[in-house]
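Q: Got a minute? One more chain.
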Amino acid sequence: MDEAQFDRFADEYEALQAASVRISGESPEYFWRYKVVDLARICAESGVRPRAVLDFGAGVGNSVPYLREQFPSAGITCLDVSRKSLSVGEQRFSGAADFAWFDGGRIPFDDATYDVAFVACVLHHIEASEHVTFQINCDLHPVDPARCSPDASCSIRPVWRLLERRINDLLAGITLADLMHQEAQIYQIVGVTAET
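A: Always. Here it is, folded:
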């Protein structure tokens, strides 16, 4: 994850996002809100009442109003590698959330600091091999801190490495233009059949 890459788009992120979803007929706000509403539904169904929510890859904070709406008593922390994006978000939503920078490596909070991590429209910016996605799960569901260390033996790591290799191989062969095709054509492009 390259901070400079994301900093370049911080000021115009909303306009870029509006242009990218225009074909759907919906506003960007629709997409920002429904994902948070889904998260709130999943939490309710699971009996989770978050006291602290981590918005991982928060960018300019577009999910903050909806996180605040759905989790009014929870502390919300927006985490991102782009200081410029965080600055824009903090100006827009001052007092509604905390904004924290991280270097794209280790998440700078103690394990179990957050009850829920909201990760939307982010993972396509992260190589599956990056430790961060694995760490988010370990941080939310700590077992033994020593087992989640990159240097420790971990029973899930071989499976994770296989999955990340397959995901990276698949994504390397797909372009944004490919995704403009109909669903049936996408099945052919990725080499799977639709399950009925």
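A: Residues 28-46 form the longest helix (19 residues).
Q: Perfect, thanks.
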